[in-house]
Amino acid sequence: MKTIKGKIQKIVLRAVLRTQGAVLRIAFYGRYSTNLQKELSIDQQLRECTAYAGKLGHQIVVQYEDRAKSGTSIHKRPGLQQLLADMKSKSRTFDAIIVHDLSRLTRDQADIQQIHKKVKFHRVELLSVFERFSSNNPNADLSLIFSGYSNQQFIDKLKVDVLRGMKQQFDDGFSVGTRSFGITSRAIHYPDKRKDRGVLEIQAYKLILDKPKVPIVKRIFALRLAGHGCRTIAKQINTTYPGYDFKSNWIRSILRNPIYKGTVLWNHKKTQKDPDDDRIEKRLKDSEQWCKRHDASLVIIPAATWRAVQKITRHPTGDKPFPPASRHILSGLLICTGKMKKTGKPCGQRLTIVQHDDYGCPSNVYNQGCTNHLRINRYCLEALLIQHIQTHLPQHLERIVKAMRTHSQAVTPTQHTSPARLTTLKKDVANLFSLIEQQDMTGYAFEHATAQYKQACAKVDAAKAEMTTKGTNDITAIRYDAAVIRHVLKNLPKAMSESREAGQDLMRTMVKEVRISNDETRERRCPLCNKQFEKLTVIHTRQHGFEKEAFFRQYPAVGFTHGARIVMAFNPVGLSAKKKIVILVIPETLKIQIDNLPPVVFSV
To answer: What integer pLDDT is reported at residue 592 of this predicted model?
Structure first.
């Protein structure tokens, strides 16, 4: 109570002092933009604000500033954020905020309205020298609307003027700031305009080839046309040309850039800020707004070669950050167990086809966020998992049957309801119903009787279900046909290869998930000739009389780029489901959730 009275006294005292002309403690905020003002602008703002505060009989006691910061946003400005934070503090050292003009706070109309709400809530007066604005003025809201609109219009007009000037530069064949690897710019000077000390004034910049980097661009396109993936290309370029550190996403952006065939593209993208966190997003503009021109001096790659590369280069479409996953037999079952580089937490991403027929973690391939750099040929992984299914499935079925029978034997006869007990429960339901029907109940009595009636009905339903299960608790009902299992396992490779849809369905029937992590680095050698290789080629496999796919299926270990640890969990629910091939027969009343069965663990 004393605290509340003290706060009220402070508020009243502050209001009395203001009406009596007491000296206010004022915080100054100044800002200048790199494009429009100089660093000395803040000193000029401070002088004018100090003079204005002196005329009102007040004093500036603290200063906040943001140098070289745009006024289009309030988020990435440490000076303004510190001012707003200190304003909320109980121990703040100022009673008012002064600026040279309201555009120093922000040029966004929504932001200035938000700041105005904050200063009013915290009982801080906002003053502006240029507009003679005071938040305590009865017409402050109306003045703020016009001022915010004027500042917003200034920014919009500035954007239009800048865009018009850049388009003129683009149409004249000059650079408008686009940057591409292998392309640089050269200054074009006015012939008769000179700056201080006789230096010619720069008119514009013209795009030219960066000749030392041209062979690298040609090499990147040649490697992609030969069938190499972006990650492999980046590795080869970094090895061949020391000093570069290309990433796969950089290679992909180079391959998609039309400037290398001589087409200069501009004004096809726009940046938009998220109003919540000021995060900038790039989005495509409408195609009629795009600006294109052809410059024969910039041609590095022939147009036919560029088109051929586009056909084999994946393009992310829409809002999806990665190319869509290929649908194969193992799609959706493979889980990466690598660690995230930044957080150290398990990755948990689904492995997808990342290059030709190789599975990999998309988090490692596209943004290098995961430590699992393993690549696995899909034919090798399919063959390896089928081999372990053929070996371990019978043992796993025995474990399921044993667990089910143990659960069945644990069910005691006392769990079942006798007919006499069921008759008693039905009589209770009938009595409650007649009581509710005959008595004229209202309010709490009616609600209580209705709740009892519902509980009695639920007990009757449960008793009927228990009586239905009586006599079905036979452990011999849990079984599987060994002959059927042997037939299924014998023809499993053929069934997987005949139909993709049927192979997916059968694999999901037997396998719940496969967790894969990279193990120690090992040399990749041919199992027949012991020759070391970095990437197995079809020429090498044909020397041994195999096509590449058949060689991978015959020798699955060669399809792993590194050592791997694989944990395969079978699917008890799928094995007992009613499908065309009944693998495991379990009565519906005896099914339980089995999650503690040991998985199959092996290393490659």
So the answer is: 47
Task: Provide block-wise average pLDDT over 10 residues at a time, the chain (604 residues).
Answer: 48 43 84 64 88 90 88 83 90 91 84 88 90 85 78 79 85 83 87 72 86 92 87 89 88 90 86 68 82 90 90 55 56 86 83 84 81 86 87 80 66 54 78 68 67 79 65 50 74 75 79 84 80 79 84 83 85 65 50 62 78
Q: What pLDDT score was predicted for residue 49?
A: 92
User: Residue 37 has what pLDDT?
Assistant: 54
Do 394 and 541 reside in the same domain of the chain? yes
* Structural contact between residues 271 and 280, judged by C-beta atoms closer than 8 angstroms: yes
Token pair listed for 165:
């000037």
Q: Rounded to 5 degrees, what are φ and ψ at 137?
A: -70, 140
Q: Domain containing 77: what range?
A: 12-157
User: Who contacts 437 (Cβ-Cβ below 8 Å, separation ≥6)?
Assistant: none
Specify if 397 maps to a domain: yes
**pLDDT tens digit sequence for 354-374:** 877 888 888 888 777 888 888
486 and 501 share one domain: yes
- Within a domain: residue 167? no
Is 256 a member of any domain?
Answer: yes
Distance CA 457, CA 450 (A): 11
pLDDT in tens, 132-141: 888 888 888 8
Hey, what's the torsion of the CAs at 433, 437, 441, 443, to 10 degrees? 60
Using CB atoms within 10 A of its CB, is residue 264 exposed (0-12), middle (13-18) or buried (19+)? Answer: buried
Q: How many domains are there within the chain?
A: 4
Place of tokens 């305009």: 193
- Output phi, psi for 131, to 5 deg: -85, -5
Question: If you search the block for the tokens 């008890």, which residue do you land on?
Answer: 572
- At 199-237, the pLDDT tens digits run 778 888 888 999 999 999 999 999 988 888 888 899 899
Nearest to 557 by CA among 493, 604, 515: 604
Longest dimension (CA), the chain: 115
Find out whether 575 and 397 touch, Cβ atoms under 8 Å: yes
Helices 109-121 & 140-171 angle (0-180, nearest 10): 150
Instruction: Say which CATH number the domain at 130 has.
Output: 3.40.50.1390
Is 464 inside a domain boundary?
yes
Give 377-393 pLDDT, tens digit per residue.
888 888 888 888 888 88
